[in-house]
């Protein structure tokens, strides 16, 4: 007996514009009748029948509230839209890096759909998200996300097989007959297998395992999707004590935690590390693509430094051997520490707009094999997403390759500063401010862009003169596409930078991000972050009039 395909009439929603990383909204918004269905159909329409019909799709999410329901709906709609096969992670769960790895490994011709709002809290009153990844395993480029938005504004109907049900809790395959179409196959796979196998190809697990016999880990999964992956890798494969992995139950609401690995939201890890009982700490976000690295006694590794250290020690990682030709890349607001490593190695370093999707073209063209963002994202061309567990393994591989007296996170970072100098960095996030106030802060700065050049500002006895002020735009060197208005930059004569951006991932109101980045090779200053950064922050607040406009005396999060 074949399953019927129903065409359901619908009307557009005005707010389905994908942001920095897919469509993110409150669960309540997604629960509106047809809201999810409209977006999924708009995605299929935008990607086009030639890719979707008869194709192979990968599907899974970070397990947050609404994940289960969304998987059911997307399976019903995939069948009705003529997809030939969907590979789903068991229970509908896949970390974001695992989806990317799976699309690539299986050569999934229709790409994949990831259900996540990343580091945003989960649960019925919190966030949900959905994003489409293309066949290279990476987030859809602007061309596709704009097409999805355009489709969402004119959608009139969607296709669904209402009676299709699949038990995604059991590993295996099933084939269903769909009315007027060929058969539809659903393959349910272990969520970790492909990803873990890939990690074992990239790293020398024997070396890490033997190193870890005398090196104590504290891996915090913040109750996000990485729990099962971390247990498989660190406990089963690398034979660490089971207590090395904490908050490892993947929960629909992340147990009330805010699954964002930074010093504010992963404070319990920081506090544990400060006790000095562990040598290495790492935390990952809800969907497993972000990471934070800490050393003994809570030594914090800024993501900019993390990227630069991995770049400088790339040769320790087997995957990168014989891949010396490719360069590095970072997003524009990311501190420029990696640029210095590239310079020394005679490699290219690309500066792209915020969001992982911009790295994909560079990787596909073989121009880069390592990249990162200040927002706790680090990764390589093994997949086309950033990858939290990969970053932790990269650090462990690097540490295990040091001479015995240098096998400490802090020593590796300080050694790096001594060699290259230190890029100081801070990011102030003002979350959920009124949208109009967010816009006003940006326009305050934007209006001054042309007049700022040459102006001098003084704060706390330090004087800076503006060398350049612009709204960052990027021309992709591979396909020539132009992406404009990616953040307001104020660059000082000595290279210090102040950057303002509005977040593209928030789900309500506006989040203003203020980034400050500067460099010093004066070792006396290496431990004086705030002395170095505070004057630039003061200048930024003055130029933007942020405190006055938003009424916020302090940011919600400081990195
Ligand atoms: C944020 C980060 C950005 C990252 C994105 C997805 O985007 O700043 O670097 O790629 O999340 O994880 P934003 O909210 O700033 O648009
Ligand atoms: Zn994430």
Describe what you observe in this structure.
This protein has 3 domains: 6-191, Alpha-D-Glucose-1,6-Bisphosphate, Chain A, domain 3; 194-420, Alpha-D-Glucose-1,6-Bisphosphate, Chain A, domain 3; 422-558, TATA-Binding Protein (2-Layer Sandwich), CATH 3.30.310. The protein is 33% helix and 26% strand. The protein has 18 helices and 27 strands. It has a 7-stranded mixed beta sheet with strand order 2-6-5-3-4-9-8, sandwiched between helices. Strands 20-21-24-25-26-19-27 form a 7-stranded antiparallel beta sheet. A hairpin with a 2-residue loop joins strand 20 and strand 21 (462-471). Helix 2 (35-47) packs across helix 6 and helix 8 crosses helix 14. The radius of gyration is 23 Å and the shape is globular. The model has no long low-confidence stretch (mean pLDDT 95). The structure holds 1-O-phosphono-alpha-D-glucopyranose and zinc ion. Zinc ion binds next to loops. The site of 1-O-phosphono-alpha-D-glucopyranose has 14 residues, from loops.
């Amino acid at each position: 007996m074949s399953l019927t395909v129903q065409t359901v009439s619908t009307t557009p929603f005005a707010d389905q514009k994908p942001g920095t990383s897919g469509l993110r909204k409150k669960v309540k918004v997604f629960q509106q009748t047809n809201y999810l269905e409209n977006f999924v159909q708009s995605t299929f329409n935008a990607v086009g029948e030639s890719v979707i019909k008869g194709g192979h799709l990968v599907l899974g999410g970070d397990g947050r509230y609404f994940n289960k329901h969304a998987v059911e709906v997307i399976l019903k709609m995939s069948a009705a839209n003529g997809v030939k096969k969907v590979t789903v992670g068991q229970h509908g769960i896949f970390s974001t890096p695992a989806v990317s790895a799976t699309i690539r490994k299986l050569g999934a011709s229709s790409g994949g759909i990831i259900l996540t709002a990343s580091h945003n809290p989960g649960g019925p009153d919190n966030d949900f998200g959905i994003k489409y990844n293309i066949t290279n395993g990476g987030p859809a480029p602007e061309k596709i996300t704009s097409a999805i938005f355009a489709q969402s504004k004119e959608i009139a109907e969607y296709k669904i097989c209402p009676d299709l049900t699949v038990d995604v809790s059991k590993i295996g395959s099933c084939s269903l007959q769909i009315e007027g179409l060929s058969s539809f196959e659903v393959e349910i796979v272990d969520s970790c297998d492909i990803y873990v196998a890939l990690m074992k190809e990239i790293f020398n697990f024997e070396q890490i395992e033997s190193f870890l016999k005398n090196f104590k880990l504290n891996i915090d999964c913040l109750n996000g999707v990485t729990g099962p992956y971390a247990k498989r890798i660190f406990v089963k494969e690398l034979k660490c004590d089971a207590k090395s992995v904490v908050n490892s139950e993947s929960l629909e609401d992340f147990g009330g935690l805010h699954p964002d690995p930074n010093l504010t939201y992963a404070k319990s890890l920081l506090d544990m590390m400060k006790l000095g009982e562990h040598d290495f700490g790492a935390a990952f976000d809800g969907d497993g693509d972000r990471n934070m690295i800490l050393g003994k006694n809570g030594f914090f590794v800024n993501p900019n430094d993390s990227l630069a250290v991995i770049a400088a020690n790339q040769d320790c990682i087997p995957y990168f051997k014989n891949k010396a030709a490719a360069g590095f890349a970072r997003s524009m607001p990311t501190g420029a520490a990696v640029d210095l490593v590239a310079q020394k190695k005679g490699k290219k370093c690309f500066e792209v707009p915020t969001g992982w999707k911009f790295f994909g073209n560079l990787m596909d063209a073989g121009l880069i094999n390592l990249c990162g963002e200040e927002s706790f994202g680090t990764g390589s061309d093994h997949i086309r997403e950033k990858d939290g567990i990969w970053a932790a393994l990269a650090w462990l591989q690097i540490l295990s390759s040091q001479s015995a007296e240098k096998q400490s996170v802090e020593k590796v970072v300080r050694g790096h500063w001594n060699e290259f100098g230190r890029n100081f960095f801070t990011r102030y996030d003002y979350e959920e401010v009124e949208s109009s106030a967010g816009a006003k802060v940006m326009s305050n700065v934007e209006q001054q862009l042309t007049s700022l050049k040459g102006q001098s500002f003084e704060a706390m006895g330090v004087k800076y003169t503006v060398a350049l002020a612009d709204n960052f735009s990027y021309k992709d060197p591979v396909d020539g596409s132009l992406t404009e208005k990616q953040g307001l930059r104020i660059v000082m004569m000595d290279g210090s930078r102040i950057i303002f951006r509005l977040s593209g991932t928030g789900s309500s109101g506006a989040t203003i991000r203020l980034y400050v980045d500067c460099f010093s090779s004066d070792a006396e200053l290496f431990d004086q972050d705030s002395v170095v950064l505070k004057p630039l922050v003061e200048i930024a607040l003055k130029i933007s009039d942020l405190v006055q406009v938003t009424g916020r005396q302090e940011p919600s999060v400081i990195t």
